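Q&A log
Question type: sequence-to-structure
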Amino acid sequence: GTFDLKWIDFDFRFSKDGTLIDYEGASHEALERPLQRRGKDLSWELHASIVGTRPDSWSVNVLSACGLTHEKLTPEKYQEEYFKEVHDMYPAIKAWPGTLSLLSRLKRKGFRLAIATSTPKLSFDDKMVHHPEILAAMDAVVTGDEVSNGKPAPDIFIEAARRIGCDPAHCIVFEDSPLGIEGAHAAGCMAVALPDARMSVNDHRFTELGPKWLFSTIGDFDVDSIVKIAPSSSGSEAATEAHDL
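Response status: OK
Response body:
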């Protein structure tokens, strides 16, 4: 169908593998190390249950699921140890195959791009030092500590759209978590789902949520399926047409 499209949001945050970089393998290891020091392990099923949530949420939920009391590990201490562990892994984390070429093609076609991530700003900035080419392509960044409510609330997507002067209904969101897809839909956006094969327990949720597109990798998205249409003589915004992929 035909719809107005002003920007595409590549969501890059704590959850799954990240849509732009291969983050989640390192994140899983960093989440598990503090638990292992207390005699616990982190399953991928438990990891899948916290995908897309902010640190103040996932820390509480993981500790509760593992049966760790505040006497053994507080949520705040767990977050501190997690970010220390993952910090040392940042230099080795690579962009997903196809990420940079997709960003380049979208920019050449005139789309505005934003990142909407549940990661706190300090951690996000620390991580993205190693990915300047990704940041250079972005017109806006919103981190999880800049909005009142985390995903699946629509706050972060609405704020990202506001920062680049766009109606959320004119946005396509790339997401790797069910909570992110839910939040994107709540904001009125269209969504591209990128499920993580290691978290197959979430597959049924993606099916239930019904994103417009579902791919195994970000490189599968066909930029040529989105065609810009010149503004009408009345001066209305340019429309685009998205062909089913």
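Response note: The first helix runs from residue 24 to 36.
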